[in-house]
Design goal:
Helices cover 46% and strands 14% of the residues. It is built from 18 helices and 23 strands. The strands form seven sheets. A five-stranded parallel β-sheet has the order 12-15-19-3-20. A five-stranded mixed β-sheet has the order 9-10-5-4-11, covered by helices on one side. Helix 3 packs across helix 8 and helix 6 packs antiparallel against helix 7. The radius of gyration is 43 Å and the shape is rod-shaped. The protein starts with 15 loop residues before the first strand and ends in a 17-residue tail after the last helix. The N terminus and C terminus are likely disordered.
């Protein structure tokens, strides 16, 4: 019913009631309980007590959002902003809704203060491996590379078909075709004239060319040729054999001319494609040539720097030139009309040219929480293509560890310990600096031989008992885990903490639109939240129970037509909550709610 932490019933101190300040809007109340209860001053530095709230209500204090100890927690968590990539911290705080929200809010602030990490972009290799490589470069540069390549592909979808449909290309193509025809026809014509001068005809048949004896411009019939004298016939046959050999040479030369023609056509196509591709990539190539970040080779399949990006752009340009026909064919299938950008983006034949930026869209430090704790969610997944097919960049879905960039990955300690295999997987990735994505088609989600660079910082959250259980579960693996106690369950009771408490009450009143709380009522709340530890009074830092009590007390005050919450409303609310949590009647000798002197 309520988020109230039940505690062991306290002793029953007698609270002396003093008349509350007159409320001009409230008629005199003859109820014996009318008045403000004031608990005795607690032990502790500053001797807190009634004097802190004399004549004041919650309206006299500046609302203090958040919970107790937030300033100290902020200072304790400041070490995270100075931590190295792949470090691990355990942030301990009580398990209440208020503490959990406060920890996440403070961690979000720390994440924004982290230095900006390099982005990671997956790109095709364009080689025999048909695999992916990772480029590491500044965040803005990664986005510029991805956007620039996409714009270039969109531009080439229009300019390449136009280049091959231009008049200059058609004229050059016709010229090469004419050279092939003229070169072949000239050789045939010369041979034909020489043969005819010796009464040998060069004839074109359905099966090709043939030579035959001729007389007075006519082909000699076979039976006439056989009737010739042997000497004359032998001379004609010698001529026929010689011209057959020459014809064979001419035809062989024709094959050479055709091959040369094909090479010259290929060179023409390459020239046209190169000019068009260079024009489309010119601005992008120039932009990265002017970048000043240093180039270096990293472990695995990861490369960084200007040199690496420039080399990849060169490989991209060469592959686009080789496969210019993809764009021409697509244009012809579209009837020569320009394709829409979404059609180009979804063209599977062009997927190899996309740049997949794996880190968060802003590629800045951020805070993320994994939805699941399996390999696919933590380390990513990849849909492997059929054998012999190129792996495209967008077949790779990065996991939380890669997506976070250099930011914070926050995981609850109990969830981490409950998921078998999650902690060893995370520890291995953080230790090595690389994550191995899962094969999404494999039932066992086996790892794939792709290394995704990891820069994230891991934050494990929980209370101190969770921390001890986490350490005991893996003593060796948690040696590098640094403990940060963000919020203590209790803080010393002093006049300063009483004023903080009053500010928190004021914030709850404002947030919930409750009636003001008078000073004695706030003292009753403090008394309820105070414990004794090592001879000193300490105040519980959780605000969830206080919120429940104030909401009930507000209902009690309104039902009595009051415009302010009094101590008696607080004590009545405490009793209602205690009865709801423990319906067994309390012993008359040890009442849960302090008696009120009459």
């Amino acid at each position: 019913m309520f988020n109230f932490l039940q505690r062991t019933p306290k002793a029953s101190p007698v609270i002396v009631v003093e008349p509350p300040p007159a409320d001009p809007s409230t008629p005199p109340d003859t109820d014996d309980l009318n008045g403000a209860a004031s608990p005795p001053a607690a032990n502790g530095a500053g001797s807190p007590g009634k004097g802190t709230f004399d004549g004041k209500t919650s309206a006299d204090f500046t609302p203090r959002p958040g919970i107790f100890g937030e300033d100290a927690a902020r200072a304790a968590l400041a070490v995270i902003a100075k931590s190295k990539p792949r470090s691990i911290h355990f942030v301990a705080a009580p398990r209440t809704q208020g503490h959990t929200s406060a920890v996440l809010a403070l961690l979000t602030t720390q994440a924004k203060a982290l230095p900006q990490a390099d982005a990671v972009a997956a790109v095709s290799t364009f080689d025999d491996r048909q695999s992916l490589t990772m480029l590491r470069l500044p965040a803005a540069s990664a986005k510029a590379l991805s956007d620039g390549v996409a714009q270039a592909i969109e531009m080439l979808s229009a300019t390449l078909p136009a280049a091959f449909d231009s008049d200059s290309y058609k004229v050059a193509r016709l010229s090469l075709d004419e050279e092939l025809r003229s070169g072949h026809d000239t050789a045939i014509d010369a041979l034909k004239r020489r043969a005819l001068a010796q009464n040998i005809g060069l004839l074109r048949t359905p099966l090709g060319y043939a030579v035959a004896p001729m007389h007075e411009g006519r082909v000699v019939a076979p039976d006439v040729f056989k009737a010739l004298p042997d000497g004359l016939k032998a001379g004609v046959e010698a001529k026929l054999s010689a011209f057959e050999n020459e014809l064979s040479s001419v035809l062989d030369n024709r094959t050479t001319l055709q091959q040369d023609h094909r090479f010259r056509l290929r060179d023409l196509d390459t020239e046209i494609s190169s000019l068009t591709v260079r024009a489309a990539l010119a601005a992008l190539t120039k932009s990265f040539a002017e970048k000043s970040f240093a180039g270096k080779a990293l472990a695995g399949n990861t490369f960084a720097g200007t040199a690496a990006v420039a080399a990849w752009l060169e490989a991209l340009s060469a592959d686009l030139v080789r496969n210019a026909a993809l764009f021409v064919t697509a244009s012809r299938h579209a009837g020569g009309y320009a394709r829409a950008p979404i059609e180009i983006a979804q063209d599977s034949a062009l997927a190899r040219y996309r740049v997949n930026v794996l880190t968060s869209p802003a590629a800045t430090s951020c805070l993320t929480t994994p939805q699941e704790l399996d390999r696919a969610d933590l380390c990513g997944g990849v849909c492997l293509p059929p054998p012999g097919t190129a792996l495209v960049p967008y077949a790779l879905n990065p996991g939380t560890l890669a997506t976070a960039g250099g930011g914070l990955v926050v995981i609850d300690a109990r969830e981490l310990m409950a998921e078998f295999g999650a902690w060893p997987l995370i520890r291995q990735a953080l230790d090595s600096g690389h994550a191995r994505p899962a094969d999404t088609a494999s039932p066992t989600a086996r790892p794939v031989n792709i290394n995704l660079p990891i820069d994230a910082r891991l934050i494990v959250t929980g209370d101190l008992e969770d921390y001890r259980a986490f350490r005991n579960a893996d003593r060796d693996g948690t040696r590098s885990v640094k403990l940060i106690t963000a919020f203590e369950p209790t803080i010393p009771l002093t006049r300063e903490t009483e004023r903080e408490f009053a500010g928190s009450v004021s914030a709850i009143v404002t947030e919930q639109s409750l009636l003001p709380v008078d000073g004695a009522a706030m003292l009753a709340l403090i008394h309820d939240r105070t414990q004794t530890a090592s001879g000193s009074s300490v105040l519980s830092t959780g605000l969830d129970p206080i919120r429940d009590v104030l909401v009930l007390a507000n209902q009690n005050a309104r039902s009595s037509a009051r415009t302010i919450i009094l101590a008696q409303d607080i004590m009545s609310a405490l009793k209602q909550i205690a009865d709801a949590n423990d319906p067994v009647p309390q012993s008359p000798t040890a009442p849960l709610i302090p008696e009120v002197a009459k």
